[in-house]
Amino acid sequence: MSESSTHSEQPIKQAELQSTDTEEKNIQFFPVSEGKLITLYILSLGLYGVYWFYKNWKLQQPLMDKKIYPVWRAIFSIFFTHSLFRRINEQATDLEKKHRFNANTLATFFVATIIVSQILDRLSTHSATFEGMISSTVIITSLALLCLSVLPMVKVQATVNRINGDMLGYLNHKYSLGNYALIVFGVLLWLMIVMGLFAESMGLIPPENV
């Protein structure tokens, strides 16, 4: 490759880097591909959702008139889901109607599934009311609701990616080392849960020990 060709490529690379920096500065909400969001959310039993809320509020913090604490808004996300979803939907006014969403409906669905899932989980763990197959059914229902809670987030994320000008979530579609560690932990956790439910259904262990 000639020296002149090398020099001609340098301005192009610099322009690309500047373009990337500009895109990152304009991002107001957390970018992530929908597939990655679903995978990490379900395998982590919703733990990734706390991180998702944190990253969104962290990006919104400089744009808000009042001081907020993204960590607390993430930990107690059920109290701030409606406000976050509304903020996202308000930024989607330039998108086609089919790419927008009903913020109140999706937020209410998310909060309801999380609350009911946690109530059922606590009842199945700390109450002697449920026994045998009934206990297993309650746990399975709790897990199913937890998995369903990702659906509103996926819909919202699809809108976020369009707001970011990144429809496919390419800005954050690869899995980091930490992501892979979370996946391995999640798979092992789910295997333990399934094995526990199977053992209980076979009468190998008492229900209260699951």
Range of helix content: 55-70%
Order of helix and strand elements from N to C terminus: HHHHHHHHH
Strand composition percent:
under 5%
Structural domains: how many: 1
Mean pLDDT: 84
The overall strand count is: 0
* Low-pLDDT windows of residues: 1-9, 11-23
Structural class: mainly alpha
Q: Which sheet architecture does the biggest sheet show?
A: none
Tally of DSSP helical segments = 9
Give the CA-CA distance, first to last residue.
Answer: 66 Å
Provide the gyration radius in Å: 22 Å
Shape: globular
Describe the structure.
By secondary structure, the chain is an all-alpha fold. The chain has one domain. 69% of the residues lie in helices and 0% in strands. It is built from 9 helices and no strands. Helix 5 runs antiparallel to helix 6, helix 6 runs antiparallel to helix 7 and helix 6 packs antiparallel against helix 8. It is globular, with a radius of gyration of 22 Å. The N terminus is likely disordered.
Summarize the structure.
With 210 residues, this protein is mainly alpha-helical.
